[in-house]
Write a structure and sequence with these properties.
Elements lengths: L3 E4 L30 H10 L3 E6 L6 H10 L8 E4 L14 H11 L6 E5 L2 H11 L2 E5 L20 E4 L5 H17 L1
Parallel strand pairs: 1-2, 1-4, 2-3, 4-5, 5-6
Amino acid sequence: MISHIIWDLGETLTTPPNGRIDKKPLTAYPEIQLRAHVPEVLETIRQMGLKQSILSNTATSDSTVVRELLNRLDILDKFEYVYATQSELDPDVPEKPDRIVYDYVLEKLAIEAKEAVMIGNTWDTDIIGANKIGMHAIWLQNPVVSVRKDFDGKVSMPPWILPVWDMESVPKAVELMMECCQSGDRK
């Protein structure tokens, strides 16, 4: 049964910093804002009884900086756990889609992969990474934010992958995912 939503941060919940990568702490970029409808969607998912967390690949920003950014954006209270990889400038640091990163967050949440849904904009890291460890995923495909380089990667079904076009469609996709998983649990 699904109990947790794990969000990607940049390009999913927030706009990117100038230059698209955090070469300085994310809190140093006043231009970073929430994407349209994010507060309403986070609240709707909270009202559905689901817990929410962040798993984000970052360049220089650690989890503390990401929490500070979320606090500035007035949404920190929506998240049970926040993890930033600080990996994008260092190839030796694990990041999504590495299993170790997903396993670390699942361990911190004390849940199994099948109990979570990853929501992100990047097919290669957010969606395929989640799929490979047995986590469901919702792919935000809006062409303004969607990224896909891997067109050959194989996916397993289940876990389920649902595409959505915009942030406003996420709660309905989560509901559908929960229905699929509950009916699958009864079999």
